[in-house]
Design goal:
By secondary structure, the chain is mostly helical. The protein is built from 9 helices and 2 strands. It is flat and about 65 Å long. The two termini are 23 Å apart.
Amino acid sequence: MPIDENLASYSDLAFKSAIVVYALVWVMLVWQFAITRKVPTAARELVTVGGGSATPPPSEPQLIGKVTDTGRPARPFSERLGNMAFAVLFVAFASHGLSIVLRGFATHRFPLGNMFEFISMATAAAVLLGLVLLRDVRYRGMWAFLLAPVLILLFLAGTKLHVDAAPVVPALKSYWLPIHVTVVSIGSGVFLVSGVASVMFLYRLWQPAGHESDNVFGRVAAMLPDAQTLDRLAYRTTVIGFPIFGTGVILGAIWAESAWGRFWGWDPKETCSFIAWVLYAAYLHARATSGWRDTKAAWINIAGFVAMLFNLFIINIVVSGLHSYAGLN
């Protein structure tokens, strides 16, 4: 069937709109970091209506704000700005998802036939997981760091890796394409959240709670959850992504047997995927092993994510193999 050029143009417009709105959300979150101030220790007690005092829970940000006539502290502008950013984030994700759907209808196939479409799907999966796991106000500070790699990947996909809507090469015209590649892209998106959480965990150890200075690093750390919470988030997301990605590798082997007559041939992409899977298995093992928890396990998790990025960019663009379907000229 011929490509629907109108739907393809609308898909590209929705994709570009998503990048712009994601960038707006990121700017709002950075702005929130810039204007948020910690309440001095001596001023943390809040005056109540009855004349007593109450101290906010340690898990809540200690922010300076006005006091209303009811005796309760008014929400500071920084908090309201963060809430607005989170609301606008749904608009960005809706535009992102619309671009993927329109791309599929425009090409009359599942929109996972090249690197541009794969990155779009993987980043959408990362944002969706973030909307599910990071919806609590305690995790709002994570969004600025999660959206940074999402924006970088989407920018690269929309500029250097973008290809016009077109049918896939004959080798990809199989029912295994939506099954195998969808599972792998979702697993990659989950690992993106996990990798960011481990990076923030190491950053939080560098700037421990209660010792934030007045410099920018300390102020950013003050907006993040504590190190233990970030470590648990990295572990939870890896537990989710590990079986998903592993299933994708197995489904790829089944497709390889159907297409090439063998389950495994140590093709560069197969090998790098296996290395990444082993690294994530090592992280889960280290996370449960005394003496390897915390920093050592976090570095293994980050190494796994670096292997995923290497597999996505270097293997697809530089190394030639049976999986060279990046869609680039």
